[in-house]
C-alpha cells in the first residue's frame, strides 16, 4: 500500500454507493457521486442530516462495510471509487481487507457503549494486535497497551478494570486507544463524542486533536458538535441525502451558505445551538 507521502491519503472520485434490494426493501442509493480528498495530516469533519450517508461513508472508508455479510446489508460501490492510502476500494478482494484495516483505524458509532463487557481494558486495547498475531510477545504487548492508555490520558490502574467500572468518557478513551493501537495512517471516527457527558466532551475532542498532531494521521471525523469540529477539523464536508452540498473551512461553509440545509445549519448555529443534533432540521430542509 502506498503511504500518505505519495499523495492524498483519501480520494473520493464520483463515488456512488448503494444498498442492494433485500426481500421487500428496494435498493437504496446512500451516496451520490461524492468527490473530495483529504490531505496528508488533515482532519476533515463530516456533517449532515440524519440518514445523509455519513455512517455509510465511514464504514466504507474503514473497510468494515466491505467485510459485512450480505444479510447485514452490505453496501456496494456502484459508481466512481474511493482510494485510501493508494488502495482502490472498488472491488478490493476480501483477502486484502485485514491488511487494509491495519492501516485504517476505526472508531465506530457507539464504540464506548459496545466495548466487550467481559474483557479488561488491557485485553480490549491489545485485541487488534493479538487478532493479527496471537503469538505477539507478551511483554511488548503490555508495553504497547500501557503506552496507548497513557496516550489517552488514563492512569495505568485502569488496565485491569472492566468497561462497567469506567465512566462514558473513560470508555470512549479506551475505544480510541484501541482504534489507534496499530498505529494507523488514517483514522475514521463516527460521532466520537456522542453520548459523552458535556463536561468531558471537549476533553475527548482535544485529545483527538493532540493525538493527531503527535502521530500525524489523517482523519475523517463525523460529528454534530461544532466545538468538537472546531477543535479537531480545519475543513468540513456537509452531506445531505447522500450528496456533498458544501466543503471548506467551517467559517467558509457557514458564512456563505448556498444549500438550504447548510443555511438552516448556519441559522441554527447563529441562534446559539452548538450541537446540531439538538435540531430537527430534517432530511428535506
Ligand atoms: N444496512 C442497510 N441497508 C439498507 N439501507 C441502509 C442500511 N444502512 C443504512 N441504510 C440507509 O442508507 C442511508 C444512509 O444511512 P447512514 O446510516 O449512512 O446515514 P447517517 O448520515 O449516518 O445517519 P445518522 O446521522 O442518523 O446516523 C439511510 O437512508 C439509511 O436508511
Briefly characterize the structure.
This protein has 285 residues and is of the alpha/beta class.
CATH topology: Rossmann fold
The profile of the biggest β sheet is:
6 strands, mixed
Could you tell me the mean pLDDT? 88
CATH architecture designation = 3-Layer(aba) Sandwich
Helix-strand makeup class: alpha/beta
CATH class: Alpha Beta
Name the hetero compounds present.
adenosine-5'-triphosphate
Number of domains: 1
Write out the CATH superfamily name: P-loop containing nucleotide triphosphate hydrolases
* Strands, total number: 10
In terms of per-residue confidence, which ranges show pLDDT below 50 for 5 or more consecutive residues?
none
**Rg for CA atoms:** 19 Å
Helix percentage range: 25-40%
Family: Belongs to the ABC transporter superfamily.
Organism: Agromyces fucosus
Keywords: ATP-binding, Nucleotide-binding, Transport
Protein name: ABC transporter ATP-binding protein
Description:
- It is a single chain.
- The chain has helices at residues 54-61, 64-67, 97-103, 121-132, 138-151, 168-180, 198-215, 226-232, 250-255, 260-270, and strands at residues 10-19, 28-38, 43-48, 76-84, 87-88, 104-107, 186-190, 218-222, 235-240, 243-249.
- It is α/β, with parallel strands linked by helices and 285 residues long.
- The protein has one domain (4-278): P-loop containing nucleotide triphosphate hydrolases (Rossmann fold, 3-Layer(aba) Sandwich), CATH 3.40.50.300.
- It has a 6-stranded mixed sheet with strand order 6-7-8-3-9-10, with helices on both faces.
- The chain is globular, with a radius of gyration of 19 Å.
- Adenosine-5'-triphosphate (ATP) binds next to strand 2 and helix 1.
Amino acid at each position: 500500500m502506498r503511504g500518505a507521502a505519495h499523495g492524498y491519503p483519501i480520494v473520493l472520485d464520483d463515488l456512488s454507493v448503494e444498498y442492494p434490494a433485500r426481500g421487500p426493501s428496494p435498493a437504496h442509493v446512500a451516496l451520490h457521486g461524492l468527490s473530495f480528498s483529504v490531505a496528508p495530516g488533515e482532519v476533515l469533519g463530516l456533517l449532515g442530516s440524519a440518514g445523509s450517508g455519513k455512517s455509510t461513508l465511514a464504514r466504507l472508508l474503514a473497510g468494515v462495510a466491505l467485510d459485512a455479510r450480505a444479510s447485514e446489508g452490505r453496501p456496494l460501490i456502484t459508481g466512481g471509487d474511493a482510494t485510501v492510502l493508494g488502495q482502490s476500494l472498488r472491488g478490493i478482494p476480501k483477502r486484502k481487507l485485514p491488511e487494509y484495516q491495519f492501516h485504517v483505524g476505526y472508531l465506530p458509532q457507539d464504540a464506548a457503549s459496545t466495548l466487550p463487557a467481559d474483557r479488561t481494558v488491557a485485553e480490549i486495547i491489545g485485541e487488534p494486535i493479538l487478532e493479527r498475531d496471537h503469538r505477539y510477545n507478551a511483554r511488548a504487548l503490555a508495553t504497547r497497551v500501557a503506552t496507548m492508555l497513557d496516550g489517552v490520558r488514563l492512569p495505568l490502574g485502569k488496565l485491569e478494570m472492566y468497561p462497567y467500572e469506567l465512566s462514558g468518557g473513560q470508555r470512549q478513551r479506551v475505544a480510541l486507544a484501541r482504534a489507534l493501537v496499530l498505529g494507523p495512517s488514517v483514522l475514521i471516527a463516527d460521532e466520537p463524542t456522542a453520548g459523552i457527558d458535556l463536561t468531558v466532551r471537549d476533553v475527548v475532542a482535544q485529545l483527538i486533536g493532540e493525538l493527531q498532531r503527535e502521530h500525524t494521521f489523517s482523519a475523517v471525523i463525523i460529528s454534530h458538535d461544532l466545538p468538537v469540529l472546531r477543535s479537531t477539523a480545519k475543513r468540513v464536508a456537509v452531506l445531505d441525502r447522500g450528496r456533498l452540498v458544501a466543503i471548506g473551512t467551517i467559517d467558509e461553509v457557514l458564512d456563505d451558505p448556498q444549500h438550504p440545509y447548510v443555511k438552516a445549519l448556519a441559522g441554527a448555529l447563529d441562534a446559539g445551538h452548538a450541537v446540531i443534533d439538538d435540531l430537527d432540521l430534517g432530511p428535506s430542509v
